[in-house]
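Fold this sequence, please.
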Amino acid sequence: MTSQRVVIAGASGFIGQRLVASFREEGASVSTIGRSGADARWGDQEAIDALVDGADLLVNLAGKSVNCRYGPANRAEIVRSRVETTEELGRSVRAASTPPSLWINSSTATIYRHAEDRPMTERDGEIGTGFSVGVATAWEDAFFDGDLPATRRVALRIAIVLGDGGALIPLLMLARFGLGGPQLDGRWPTSRTRRTAGTAHDLGARGGRQRFSWVHLDDVVGTVRFVRDHPELDGPINVSSPNPTDNRGFMRTLRYALGRPFGLAAPRWMLELGMFILRTETELVLKSRWVLPERLLHAGYRFSYPEFDPALRDIVAARSLPMSTESR
């Protein structure tokens, strides 16, 4: 039996690395596209064309991390690294004599509005406003642009991914050093420049009650496999646990998983100063993301980690030391 040919773009991140390893474990032939150390590099259209032609599955995870300050240069690179790479892959799919039957492109659950009143599903979720939402919509517009009659396209609107890497690690560090309380929203002056750029965060949920939609890394990999095996699925799909928590509950569970029963809360002024020093944005912890995976559940996907507490404990237990600080 001929092994499946899989092409993964943006494979150097912690999601991509797990996905590459997972497919290779099942005997697939996996090729990668990236900036360096990959089988084809971005900008080399001929090499990308050669990889994509004849592939069974194309997965694109490329994109600059949003864990940065949203200045003009970073904003431009966040958009470019998503839209241009997706467009490159689209050209390769169109040029292929044997195009992949399935193209899965990463997207983000941040595409939905700040939601405190109800969860957002693919069916009735409301698209938000601001820079981050604009990035998500431009990304999906590039992905779904034009006809690709031989290729099924699925955009994964992924919630915050929990694993030994990514967004969880700095939060683990905060909890370890006694700062594992909730992140509290409040009023904060914002400049006209930030409002024009769409990067200002307006006061929302109080008391650390902003919703926190998450997904275990194993379920991201599981979703890719599930989508591959269910040809009836196309278009946008929410990739998030069916049991979101809120910021207060998230941080409480995080503390207890680490054996830290107490943690100081961080009010808005402290967050703004701290995030400025760390060169990132308060939106990452203050926006209320309330997303449900309606289409996955209706199609019969069973989450390996539907509940937050077991998911977090699995990740903490899997680390080589309970709270090692080695670089990754």
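Residues 182 and 248 are 5 Å apart (CA to CA). The chain has one domain: 5-318.
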